[in-house]
Design a protein that fits this description.
With about 150 residues, this protein is of the alpha/beta class. It is built from 3 helices and 8 strands, in the order βαββαβββαββ. The chain is globular, with a radius of gyration of 16 Å. The structure holds S-adenosylmethionine.
């Protein structure tokens, strides 16, 4: 019998091939069920209306210019099918101002949703205290939207 997971196609994207290789090692044999894409999320070519779920944890907050953020939102709008699920998590307003030495943005629910616009119907948002491997705690915000 085919498990429901085997019927799903998972695509994982990162700009870093090193990050992709580390994630593949962690997944072991399950990595074969994933299509891996190495590229910048604001530029990479994604298949239109091909995705039911878009899940970004801790990438959007690295986009520090309005142009990068607008390009990202165009990518989600183009790649996710209508009615699809979009989950984006970023540093919350109490989160750090830098990550891995890079400047980052911080958001509350209203400011994050504002970046995406009314076409993204806000369903839920929540905060999380994330314990890092470096024994620090980072405040994250999660927003879950449906694409109209
Ligand atoms: C804090 S890590 C989060 C990794 C993973 N999403 C998780 O939750 O564990 C941020 C990741 O975003 C990637 N990244 C940063 N800017 C990116 C971009 N413009 N396009 C794609 N990936 C990017 C980095 O290479 C890094 O692996």
């Amino acid at each position: 019998m085919v498990s429901p997971w085997e019927a799903l196609l998972f695509v994982v994207l990162d700009v870093s091939q090193t990050a992709i290789e580390a994630t593949k090692r962690r997944l072991g044999a399950a990595a074969e069920q994933v299509r891996w894409l190495c590229g910048d999320i604001v530029e990479v070519e994604l298949e239109p209306k091909a995705y039911d779920v878009w899940h970004d944890r801790a990438v959007f907050h690295f986009l520090t210019t309005p142009e990068q953020r607008a390009a990202y939102v165009r990518q989600v709008t183009r790649a996710v099918r209508r009615g699809g699920h979009v989950i984006v998590s970023t540093f919350a307003t109490e989160g750090p101002t830098k990550c891995s030495g890079l400047d980052v943005m911080r958001y509350d629910t209203a400011s994050l949703h504002h970046e995406f616009g009314a076409q993204f119907r806000l369903m839920e948002s929540s905060k999380e205290s994330h314990d890092t491997p470096f024994a620090t705690t980072q405040q994250f915000l999660y927003c879950y939207c449906r694409l109209n």
